[in-house]
Amino acid sequence: MRTVTAGLFHSVDGIVEAPNEWQFDSFDAEMGEELGAMIGRVDTVILGRVGYEQWSSYWPTAEDDGFAAFINPVRKYVASTTLTGTLEWENATLVNGDLIRFVEELKSTDGGEIAVCGGIAIVRSLFFAGLIDSLTLMTHPVIAGSGRRLFEPGDPPTRLELQSFRTTSAGNTITTYGVR
To answer: End-to-end distance of the chain based on CA atoms, in angstroms?
Structure first.
């Protein structure tokens, strides 16, 4: 069975939305190494519509910084109820039907790690459906002040198990949890 992971940039006050607006100078070489190791295990990516639209307009023509070399050729599945037809980005396919069922079936196929790379609601949905095996929060030493959080009031109490923890020289913490 394949593993499904999700990794999100995270502020001290719990914001995961638009990290480009608050990461500032805390993205360091150690965080880059960690991300490189993560993407080295991935051969399939799940994105939401917004992530797909943003990334597909940027990464296909971006200068190769390492991530472009990963994200452009990798198999991408896009969860959307509003997109239709064939997707233009290389190796991108629209998920037809129920995302939970699709991911359950995808986990049972052969291949490498499946990474949920975009869509806060998608990460939440798959996490509470028990389909995310590892959730990595890359917490930057900053208070973002506003934006969407991964977890919301009213979410069910959920016990987690620490899988790994690392602090970088810039003060980031990289914490990976699984559901206990």
So the answer is: 18
Write down the domain spans for the chain.
4-179
Q: Are 18 and 8 in contact (CB under 8 A)?
A: no
At 77-91, the pLDDT tens digits run: 999 989 888 899 999
pLDDT digits (tens, 9 = 90+) for 20-35: 899 888 888 999 898 8
* DSSP 3-state of 35: helix
Distance CA(87)–CA(84), nearest Å, equals 8
Secondary structure of 81-149 as H, E, C letters: CCCCCCCCCCCEEECCCCHHHHHHHHHCCCCCEEEECCCHHHHHHHHHCCCCCEEEEEEECCCCCCCCE
What is the dotted CATH code of the domain comprising 4-179? 3.40.430.10
For residue range 45-63, list pLDDT tens digits in order.
999 999 999 999 999 999 8
Asked whether 180 and 159 are in contact (CB, 8 A), the reply is yes
| Residue the block writes with tokens 């016990």 | 159
Using one digit for the tens of pLDDT, what is the confidence trace for 107-146?
999 999 999 997 899 999 999 999 999 999 999 999 999 9
Give the predicted TM-score (pTM) of the model: 0.92
* Calpha distance 142→144 (Å, rounded): 6
- The DSSP 8-state label assigned to residue 108 in this structure reads T
